[in-house]
C-alpha cells in the first residue's frame, strides 16, 4: 500500500494558537489526518518548531514530494527519511511540528492499511511481546491547574489524582466523579469563579498556599469513598518556579508524609541531574521521580539521567522529539533502565486522539491526559473507552 498524496494546512489548537494538520491519502483512496499539539512549559532540549504556516509550507515543498509512493508501513524508514530531509539534529530546518504531523499520519495510514486499530498496530511495532489485555495505563488526571497553565497564584503546574485501577473505564469513571465533586467543593468554599479552568481543563482558582489543593483533594476523595483507591501526584515544572532549593525539598517531603503521594515530575530545573538524585535518595523508594524537561523524550538526555541515577520514571511526549520512531526508542530505553513510562499530552492540544492510542499501544505505566473537561481532553478519554471495547 503506497502513499498517493500528502497535504497540510493550519488549524487552531485548544488555546486558539495555530498548529499544523496533515491529510494523507493512500493509493486505494483511504485517508487519515493527523495534527500535533504544542506545549507552553517547554524544555530547552526539545525538538525545535517553526510557525504553523512555515510547517505547512515545508511539508508541501520538501516532504510531500519525497513521500509519494512510499509504503507507510515502513515507519522507521519513513522517519529516518524525514530526519534526512531536515538534516539538523534538532529538526530546526523543517520543524519538529511539521515532521511529527507527517510521522503520525504515516503510522495511522499503516494501521488503516493493515485493518488494525491504531493502538494494536503501535503495540506490534513498539512492544510485540506485550499481551493485548483489557487493562491500560494508570490515568494521571490533572484536576487543578497552576503555574504557566493557569492565571492563579499556584507555583506548581499540575495537581494530579491517580486512580489505582488499570481498568480504563473504572479510571475514567473515578476521574469524572472526583472532578465533579471537586467542582462542588470549590463552589461552596470559594464561589462560582473558582470553577474557571486552566489550559488542561483543571480548575484554576487561587489558594491560600501550594498545599491547600491537596488538602481539598483529600477531603473530596474521602467523601467519595476513594481514600484507598486513589493516589496523588504533581508536575512541579520547577524550571519555572521561583523558590529556593531548600523550600522545594521541604515542600515535597511534606507531600510525601501527609498524602498518598506517589508521583513527582520535574521537581527541579532542567539541568539539575544531581539534585534529582539527591531527592530520590531522601524520599520514599516507592515515589516515582520523573523527568520531563530534564529528559525531553531524548535518548541522550535519558542516558545522562541514568548515569546520574536522577530518575526512576520518565515522561514520553512524541512532540518533544519529533517522530513516532524516536518516541518508541525512548520508551525502549526507559524499559531497559527499569523506569516507569508516563505518556503525556501537551497543554495546547487538538482533537486528535493519537496520544491515547500511543499510551496504550506502547504499554505505558501512566497516561497524563488532563481533566475530564474541554473537548480536546474529552477526545482522549472517549478514545480510551473505545480502546477498552476493542480490546475485549
TrEMBL record:
- Which keywords does this Swiss-Prot/TrEMBL entry list? Cytoplasm, Glycolysis, Lyase, Magnesium, Metal-binding, Secreted
Write down the Gene3D superfamilies for this protein, in alphabetical order: Enolase-like C-terminal domain (3.20.20.120), Enolase-like, N-terminal domain (3.30.390.10)
Q: Which residues bind Mg(2+)?
A: 235, 265, 292
The UniProt entry, under SMART domains, shows: Enolase_C (SM01192), Enolase_N (SM01193)
Q: How is the cofactor bound?
A: Binds a second Mg(2+) ion via substrate during catalysis. Mg(2+) is required for catalysis and for stabilizing the dimer.
The subcellular localization recorded is: Cytoplasm; Secreted; Cell surface
**Residue ranges of every copy of the Enolase N-terminal domain listed in the record:** 3-122
- Ligand binding (substrate): 149, 158, 265, 292, 344-347, 368
Q: Which GO terms describe its molecular function?
A: magnesium ion binding; phosphopyruvate hydratase activity
Q: Where is the Enolase C-terminal TIM barrel domain?
A: 133-392
Q: Which GO terms describe its biological process?
A: glycolytic process
Protein EC: 4.2.1.11
Tell whether Metal-binding is among the UniProt keywords: yes
Q: According to its record, what are the GO cellular component terms? A: cell surface; extracellular region; phosphopyruvate hydratase complex
Q: Which InterPro entries match?
A: Enolase, Enolase-like_C_sf, Enolase-like_N, Enolase_C, Enolase_CS, Enolase_N
The main location class comes to cytoplasm
Q: Which residues bind (2R)-2-phosphoglycerate?
A: 157, 317, 346-347, 368
Q: Which reaction does it catalyse?
A: (2R)-2-phosphoglycerate = phosphoenolpyruvate + H2O
Which pathway is this protein engaged in? Answer: Carbohydrate degradation; glycolysis; pyruvate from D-glyceraldehyde 3-phosphate: step 4/5
Q: What cofactors are annotated for this protein?
A: Mg(2+)
Q: Which PROSITE patterns match?
A: ENOLASE
* Domain of life of the organism encoding this protein: Bacteria
Query: Is the keyword Transport in the record?
Result: no
- Catalytic site residues? 200, 317
The family this protein is said to belong to: Belongs to the enolase family.
Per its record, how is this protein called by name?
A: Enolase
Lineage runs: Bacteria, Candidatus Liptoniibacteriota
Amino acid at each position: 500500500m503506497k502513499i498517493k498524496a500528502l497535504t497540510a494546512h493550519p488549524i487552531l489548537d485548544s488555546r486558539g494558537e495555530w498548529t499544523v494538520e496533515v491529510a494523507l491519502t493512500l493509493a486505494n483512496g483511504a485517508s487519515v489526518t493527523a495534527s500535533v499539539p504544542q506545549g507552553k512549559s517547554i524544555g530547552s532540549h526539545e525538538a525545535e518548531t517553526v510557525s504553523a504556516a512555515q510547517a505547512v509550507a515545508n511539508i508541501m515543498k520538501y516532504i510531500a514530494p519525497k513521500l509519494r509512493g512510499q509504503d507507510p508501513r515502513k515507519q522507521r524508514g519513513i522517519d529516518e527519511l524525514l530526519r534526512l530531509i531536515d538534516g539538523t539534529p534538532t529538526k530546526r530546518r523543517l520543524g519538529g511540528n511539521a515532521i511529527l504531523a507527517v510521522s503520525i499520519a504515516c503510522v495511522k495510514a499503516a494501521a488503516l492499511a493493515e485493518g488494525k486499530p491504531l493502538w494494536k498496530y503501535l503495540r506490534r511495532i513498539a512492544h510485540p511481546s506485550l499481551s493485548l489485555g483489557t487493562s491500560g495505563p494508570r490515568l494521571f488526571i490533572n484536576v487543578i491547574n497552576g503555574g504557566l497553565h493557569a492565571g492563579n497564584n499556584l507555583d506548581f503546574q499540575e495537581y494530579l489524582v491517580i486512580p489505582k485501577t488499570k481498568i480504563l473505564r473504572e479510571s475514567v469513571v473515578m476521574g469524572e466523579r472526583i472532578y465533579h465533586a471537586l467542582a462542588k467543593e470549590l463552589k461552596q468554599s470559594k464561589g462560582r469563579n473558582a470553577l474557571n479552568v486552566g489550559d488542561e481543563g483543571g480548575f484554576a482558582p487561587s489558594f491560600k498556599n501550594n498545599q491547600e489543593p491537596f488538602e481539598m483533594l483529600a477531603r473530596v476523595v474521602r467523601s467519595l469513598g476513594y481514600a484507598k483507591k486513589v493516589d496523588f501526584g504533581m508536575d512541579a515544572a520547577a524550571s519555572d518556579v521561583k523558590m529556593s532549593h531548600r523550600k522545594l525539598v521541604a515542600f515535597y517531603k511534606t507531600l510525601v508524609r501527609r498524602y498518598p503521594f506517589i508521583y513527582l515530575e520535574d521537581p527541579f530545573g532542567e539541568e539539575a541531574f544531581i539534585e534529582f538524585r539527591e531527592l530520590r535518595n531522601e524520599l520514599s523508594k516507592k515515589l516515582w521521580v520523573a523527568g520531563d524537561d530534564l529528559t525531553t523524550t531524548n535518548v541522550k538526555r535519558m542516558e545522562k539521567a541514568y548515569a546520574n541515577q536522577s530518575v526512576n520514571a520518565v515522561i514520553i511526549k512524541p512532540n518533544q522529539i519529533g517522530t513516532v520512531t524516536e518516541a518508541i526508542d525512548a520508551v525502549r530505553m526507559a524499559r531497559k533502565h527499569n523506569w516507569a513510562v508516563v505518556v503525556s499530552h501537551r497543554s495546547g492540544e487538538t482533537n486528535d486522539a493519537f496520544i491515547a492510542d500511543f499510551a496504550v499501544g506502547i504499554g505505558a505505566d501512566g497516561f497524563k491526559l488532563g481533566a475530564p473537561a474541554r473537548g480536546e481532553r474529552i477526545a482522549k478519554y472517549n478514545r480510551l473507552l473505545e480502546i477498552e471495547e476493542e480490546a475485549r
